[in-house]
Amino acid sequence: MKTIQMVDLKQQYLKIKSEIDTALLNVLDSSVFIGGKQVTDFAANLSKYLGVKHTISCANGTDALQIAMMALDLQPGDEVITPSFTYIATTEVIALLKLKPVFVDVDKRTFCIDPAAIKNAITPKTKAIVPVHLYGHTANMEEIMAIAEEHNLFVIEDNAQAIGGDYIFKDGTKKKSGTIGTVGCTSFFPSKNLGCYGDGGAMFTNDDALAEKLKMIANHGQKIKYYHEMVGCNSRLDAMQAAVLNIKLSLLDEYISARQKAAGYYDKAFANHPKITTPYRAKYCTHVFHQYTLILNDINRDELKSFLEKNNIPSMIYYPVPAHRQKMFEAFGGGDYNLPITDWLADRVISLPIHTELEEEQQLYITKKVLEFINK
User: Fold this and answer.
1) Which homologous superfamily is 252-374 in?
2) ∠ CA(312), CA(314), CA(320), 5° rounding?
3) Considering the domain 9-104+111-249, what is its CATH architecture?
4) pLDDT digits (tens, 9 = 90+) for 92-107
5) pTM for the predicted model, two decimal places
């Protein structure tokens, strides 16, 4: 049996080595390393895949969130509603721009922001909502958009973990996650479902004026070189990464299917076990399984993690300390929040290996060891 990885990027690369190597050599031969055809082609290809008018690439997913908030003219002191149960980048950029993060609880089943909690958190200072499509499951965007429209709020989708997922509206129409709100943001970090071989990110929107502003901010606030119309930053996806992403984008649906198949194997192995809650799938979306995350009931998680490690099985806890309990948010009253579901999940979740190259032999071993520990 091959060594088990949380994400096996080496095996994934070996399957597409010829295409990747050729694409990278073409970039080297062209000597166009910043911008150029690879970057513009990738943006066009991703727009077509997502069914969105504009894709604006940038250096990473955190920059994508920051640039989006800058482009929406959010001002210091404006309140931005966000889940606390997420990677820190989502909330970090809110504070970085001197906005006020307002943390709300998540749905116990989907791990995503709870629309009812959003409603209760809205004040006259609220200007935006940042739903996070966590672990590959899309937040309830139809309800979130209705709330946003009622209160005239921007919606910035953090789609770093769910690219390629479908959202199904009540009338049966579908949209890709990340394309429903005012602007969507994603990361191409190597471990993501659509990942490059370094850092990368992008923003999506159907708003022509907003797209132009996003492009300018990502490029030092300029539309014409050396003529800077607004304060911006330097955030670019390089040609090498775009070359990799162009190839992997053509395989994204295949990658998603492989992850869904692996998730189905885990589901069957752990079905109806009283001490394990397997990932929920809402009817309104397709889960793309960036992570396969269990909720443990009456199990010592640290001991399980240690047991798996001793048996050469990696596992991860995403995320052991919610944002509102991080020291960096003390000044924003983080410790004053009462988010019982967030705290409950943070104490109980554990993610098992899931990726495009995961084999049944490996999953058999993983599930056998998990159950061996739990049933002892």
Assistant:
1) Aspartate Aminotransferase, domain 1 (3.90.1150.10)
2) 145
3) 3-Layer(aba) Sandwich (3.40)
4) 999 999 999 999 999 9
5) 0.96
